Amino acid sequence: MVTSQASREDHARFEALYQANYKPIYAYVHRRVLHSSSDVPDIVSEVFARAWRRIGDLPPSPQDRLWLFGVAHKCLLEHHRRWSYQLRLLSHLGAQPNQVEILDTSVDPLHLRVRAALQELRPFDREVVLLVYWDGLSHAEAASVLGCSVNAVALRIKKAKARLQIQLGLASPAADSHKDTSSIPITPKEHLP
Amino acid sequence: MNIESLLSEADPALNVRIPDPNPLDARMISDSSTGNSAQRVRSTYEIGSHRRIASKLNDGIQRPSVLAVLAVLVAAAIAVPLTVGHSGAPRTNTTPGVSTPTQGVWSLAGYITQPGWQASSASGPLPTTQQFTLQLTCPTSTTCYSSGTNFQNHEKTQGVISVTHDGGANWRQSLAPGDGTYFYGFSCPTANTCMAAGDVPNSNTHPSLYTTTDGGMTWTSLPMPGFNELPVFLSCATALKCATIGLLQTPTAPTPTSYFTANGGQSWEPSALPPSFFPSENDQLALECFPNGHCIAAGTGGSGPLGQGLASMIYSTDGGATWESATAPSMTATSGLMSCSDDSHCVSIESSNDRNGYQTASGELVTNDGGLTWSAVPATGLESLNTSTPMSFDSISCPTTADCWASTHLIESECNGSCPYVPDQAIILATSNGGLTWIAEPLPASPSASLQYVTDYPVYCVSGTDCRAVGTLELTKSASGAGLPMVQQDVVLTLNGGPVLGVNGTSKS
Q: Do B6 and A103 touch (CB under 8 A)?
């Protein structure tokens, strides 16, 4: 419990934590609430508020960074739950939710296809891929955030990449099992619907 | 361009300007003694553009109507799981495609309860701290050890091992080091002796071999060789002789490694694996060693960019000191699940990616000579029960030369990101003729109409009449669509009955 007598060291540690991790946490949250990006600042603030309330329990660096990702993960689950309820409410009442905020209309269509393919992964597989390729966590760090084994992360990554490659037309199913796709040239035009 | 580059470039965070941290915001949060006001702390330039769905609600909808609907939904969410208890009238299991009756009868043995879910059972719940159970092994009919994760909250996520000595009526938490250790390899040669390989992610320390010789009352730990080496599989034929197959963790190219010990982990020696062998990538055991020094392992013949390869089987006759490639037919595989009833007879279910990238069975290999030669068998029934729904395999246990059980799940989540997540459907398949034909066994009715079994692994069978599995219950699609809160609850299933189809095999010693 943080009291008004919180030590100067606590304040200093928290501000350093905030300074070092604000942008990664902001990006982490942004990537996962594209449907309501205006909520990102609120969620990020909640993550750091929880960190401040538990400042005495925070693990030492660099584990505190993973702890923040874990808290952000939990905050997002709560956000999605609330969002889901709100959507249902609007549906029941015939209203329309805010449209997804288009932040950059010049997004490469191929990247949109990649994001769509990511959405088709199973939720746990998708989260593992995002943690590793977007949030820059190692397999071990992703395992720590998700509470699973490193082996499970490696397995999920491998399965997810295989499926993404097939969905994106980078590879065929089992028939091409030994083809090296790393050098297959592709252009966005070739792979647009 | 490869998939890694595509993924990185598709990062939506690259399309927005991530604001720099404002020291004043940090000060405002930490100056609030409870942090409650922190939710209102926002970077000033963001406030102007802030829009919330609530404002839309306020624009055109009567607030009392919103609150009334919200109240109904919340009440339903709370009341439905509570009122539909497992003490109610039994229901018929609705597992699709499971119509063939078998002699085995599965029953619900206990729950792992989680916050927000009030179901309970008087018959042997696992400790509430254990979730995401990955491994289960029962050296006798009364003693079982299970390895899982304590995921009560993100701050204290860690591995945990639980034990029962009364056939599952009572479980207790046996080992939870509390330092962030997760358990990987897991092997229990006797009721009192059990070993587990543990590692703390990101610690840059040696993995540890945890050993109990008193039935899980106390554990000791010894360092295992290697930094950043993950002992994926561990098999201990006795309290002294163990072998591991693992991976040297690197971000892009994990390297297979192998070690063996003949003195209970006091010292380890490295051993060379066949060049093309890559350990099977799953959480279930794919390595088995026996007291006579015979070891058998399943893996893949390489880790190509697609994750595809061929089934690769290896064996050792000296406790893992040296390994040889077995003779096996060419079979596409990205992972293999293997179980041996004795040092001669093993069954391995191979999986690979189907046309949609799902992991489904690509075939079945059996050996009757200790893994030196493997042959493909027809494996009738391993294909999906429903041709439109892929089926993925999770674990296998063969207590006799004839009887095996495999836990699988139908992959139901076919949506394009816009539809609700559809839970998987857990299936248990059984064979009584050494893996030639497999049939689905009905699972017990779920404790609530709003729940369904989504997984039923790991499965472990002590004999042809005594099996256990740890599964997971989640909301059905309709319950999820109705707005019930998310549920994920582990359950213990037991099987007591005669051998499937009445074919007797040799009991596993």
A: no
Enter the ipTM: 0.74
pLDDT of residue B253: 59
What is each CA distance from B427 to B94, B99, B435, B443, B452, in whole angstroms? 11, 12, 16, 7, 11
pTM of the model: 0.63
Question: Using a CB cutoff of 8 Å and minimum separation of 24, what contacts does B76-82 make?
Answer: B76/B482, B76/B483, B76/B484, B77/B483, B77/B484, B77/B485, B80/B448, B80/B450, B80/B479, B80/B484, B81/B117, B81/B118, B81/B119, B81/B448, B81/B450, B81/B484, B81/B487, B82/B118
The ranges assigned to domains in chain A are: 1-102, 104-175
Contact: A180, B70; criterion CB under 8 Å: no
**Contact list, A89 vs chain B (CB under 8 Å):** 57, 66, 69-70, 73
Rg (chain B; Cα; Å): 25
Please determine, for residue A182, whether its predicted confidence score (pLDDT) is greater than 60. no
CATH node for A104-175: 1.10.10.10
- Going B438 to B356 to B10 to A47, the CA torsion angle's sign is negative
Q: How far, in Å, CA of B486 to CA of B116, rounded? A: 9
Report helix, strand or coil for B243: strand
> In the predicted model, is pLDDT for residue B426 greater than 80?
yes
Find the helix or strand (DSSP H, E) in which B481 lies: helix B477-481
**A1-102 and A104-175: identical CATH topology:** no
Chain A (108-147) residues lying within 8 Å, Cβ to Cβ, of chain B: 108, 110-112, 114-116, 118-120, 122-123, 129, 133-134, 138-141, 143-145, 147
What is the dotted CATH code of the domain comprising A1-102?
Answer: 1.10.1740.10
Whether the CB of A105 is below 8 Å from some CB of chain B: the reply is no
Nearest CB among A108, A152, A161 relative to B283 is that of A152
